[in-house]
């Protein structure tokens, strides 16, 4: 089993957290989490004969929480462990969170390993940059590795100012030679390269101001450090196999996320400008979600989603979102079983490439949930990152027991 390696400096930070959180050992906390079984059924033979066919995996995510000092101090733990039938890189363990938090009247301080989310869009979390992506979990890039950090939040009438010190960098995970939904050729994670001489020991910094004015919520942020998304360069593995080698460059990124709530409408925008990965570039994703409440005189709500993606690097962008439109439907039955479904289609305006995504979930009794996810790809042209997934259409079934 591959363990998601914790970055340099992490042990010292965890020792600090252990000292600060010693009083938590005197208080009873609460455990929660889930254990799940996942089955992926692929509709085609793989493009690379080394890749597996249908696949099974097991995962668990235990969580623990306790607080003391009248609720002003707390300790949160979230672990993760997955065993995968075929892909050794997907069999991995990680500490998603192990963080101490202390709250004052106008400030909050966190230290340890944690997760931070920025963004408002549905189809791409463009400005979300604090945590590294756990790419072996899913290609939607929503699963994140825990990030060592110290975070001071100053809470004032004019908004909240978050200051981050991020000691130690975490490399992105990628599927192994036998894994599906990977690039062709594969990414060789044994050969990481860094633009910074400090490599993964570089200390990154970030600052974000968030506030609201009437119906408008916004966040303005700046990040200076090692890019979470590597540039993939051609290389050779020790065996002589042609591979892609990840290069982690040092970047400066300024970003804005904005959401306006206007009755049944949500208007959303994420925008960034970044330097350090070639010339400076800008990118955005923006759009709306309209919710029809109580359709057909039922308790169900139906949401209509539309978003546009733009990256001014054009065809040179290492992302499939350089000039794309996403449309989707979100159905929430609002029943006792919390039945929900999301259907989305992303279309490239230049080469007619399409990706289709269906996600649905339902609770079974008090402790079980079942989820179904389907992903299909079509019409990707040479040079499009989606071309590697042309034979990876699949349906995924997940059954989870919550505790």
Short structural summary:
It contains one helix and 22 strands. The chain has 403 residues and is mainly β.
SSE layout and pairings?
Blueprint lengths: L1 E2 L6 H11 L9 E13 L12 E14 L4 E12 L7 E12 L3 E8 L32 E10 L2 E9 L25 E2 L8 E11 L2 E11 L4 E6 L5 E7 L1 E13 L2 E11 L5 E12 L8 E11 L11 E10 L7 E9 L5 E11 L3 E11 L15 E9 L1
Parallel strand pairs: 1-5, 9-13
Antiparallel strand pairs: 2-3, 2-22, 3-4, 4-5, 5-6, 6-7, 7-8, 8-10, 10-11, 11-14, 12-13, 14-15, 15-16, 16-17, 17-18, 18-19, 19-20, 20-21, 21-22
What does this structure look like?
The structure is a single chain. With 403 residues, this protein is an all-beta fold. The protein has a single domain, classed as Beta Barrel (Porin). 3% of the residues lie in helices and 53% in strands. Strand 5 (92-103) and strand 6 (107-114) form a beta hairpin. The mean pLDDT is 95.
What's the architecture in CATH terms? Beta Barrel
Instruction: Give start-end ranges of low-pLDDT stretches.
Output: none
CATH topology: Porin
Helix segment tally: 1
* Cα separation of the termini: 25 Å
Tell me the radius of gyration: 22 Å
Q: Would you report the number of β strands?
A: 22
Helix content: under 10%
Overall residue-averaged pLDDT value: 95
Order of helices and strands: EHEEEEEEEEEEEEEEEEEEEEE
Domains (count): 1
What is the CATH first-level class name? Mainly Beta
Shape: globular
- Briefly note the structural class of the backbone: mainly beta
CATH homologous superfamily identity: Porin
